[in-house]
Amino acid sequence: MGLAVEMRAGQVLLVLLAASVVMPAKDPLLNVCMDARHHKTKPGPEGMLYGQCAPWKDNACCTANTSSEAHRDQSYLYNFNWNHCGVMPPKCKRHFIQDMCLYECSPNLGPWIDQADSSWRRERILHVPLCKEDCEEWWEDCKDYVTCKENWHKGWNWATGTNRCPWGSMCRPFTQVFPSPKDLCEKIWSNSYKYTTERRGSGRLIQMWFDPVQGNPNVVVAKYYAWKKRSSPARMEDVTPETGRAACAVPRLTLLLALVLLTAGWGSYGWGSL
Q1: Could you state, in order of their start, the residue ranges of all structural domains in the chain?
Q2: pLDDT (tens digit, 9 = 90+) per residue, 234-266?
Q3: What is the pTM (predicted TM-score) of this model?
Q4: 3-state helix, strand, coil in the chain (%, to 5)
Q5: Which of 28, 68, 161, 229 is the most exposed place for a label (fewest CB within 10 A)?
Q6: Angle, CA of 124, 128 and 133, to the nearest 5°
C-alpha cells in the first residue's frame, strides 16, 4: 500500500512539474505597453499603421491614429514643434519620427520601463540600449540642424500652447549642443536611450529601424534583457513585488501542491489511479 501511494504521488508530481513547464506564467517584462498618454493597455495587431510606424502593425502598443499623428510637424499627441529653431530638414526629421514610432508602438521595451512622476504618463523608458548605427545615423542626418536645448523633455516655454525656446536661449548648431552621437542619444530625452557600441543584428540592443519582412529583432533582445534582469542579484531590487510574484506563481503553486500530496498520504483516501 505504501509503495502504491509513493508511486501515485510521484506520477502526480511529474504531471504537475510538466504543467508548470508547458504553461509558464506570463513574463510581465515581455510584450507589454507602458502606462502613458497614448499607449494601448496591451499590445495587439493593428490593421494599418501609418508610414514609419508600419513595422509594428502585427503587434503594436499604438493605434493607427497615433501612428498618423506621429508624422505631423505639430500633432495633438504632445503639441511638440520640431521646427523651434527653423525648419527641420526631412532627413533629420525622419529619425525623430522613427524615435516616436518606437516609443509609441513597440511592445518590446518592458525591461526598461520605469516609473515617471509626470502628469501625462505614469511610466517611461530609461537606458534602452540603442544600436551604434541608429545613434550615428541620427546624429549625422541632424548635424546641420540647429536647436536651443540639450534636453527636449523639459524646460520649454509653453506660453503659446506649443514648445518655444526658453527666454534668453540661443539656437545653436546640433554639433555644438550634441558634440557626439552618444550625447544626442542619451541627453535629448533624459536618458531614455543608452548609446552602445553594439551593431544591428547582435541581439543585444534595440533597433529603431528594422525590416518587418525579416521579423522584429527587438523581440529576442527584450527576452534577453528580461532574463538578465531576473538572473542578476544586483538588479533584483528593480523587480517589484508584484512582478516577482507573477513570475513565480505557477512554480510555487506546483511545488506546494505536490508537497501537500506527498505529506498527506492522499492515496489512503481512495483516489483512483491517474
Answers
A1: 51-231
A2: 543 343 333 333 333 334 444 444 444 444 444
A3: 0.76
A4: 45, 10, 45
A5: 161
A6: 135
